[in-house]
Amino acid sequence: MGLIVCGHCGRHIDEVETEKVTVLYGCCTNDSCRRGTRQGETENE
Ligand SMILES: [Zn+2]
């Protein structure tokens, strides 16, 4: 199980199935977060 959380506000965004427990950082839909540093590595797949 992997958790995707916003790298800006820490908000839980989504979950993905992974072999190990991991935390991935993405960006939530908050305007203030979307205007922040782009971290597109964990966008919705
Ligand atoms: Zn956020």
TrEMBL record:
Task: Return any one Pfam family short name.
Answer: SR1P
Annotated protein name in UniProt:
GapA-binding peptide SR1P
- Taxonomic lineage of the native organism: Bacteria, Bacillati, Bacillota, Bacilli, Bacillales
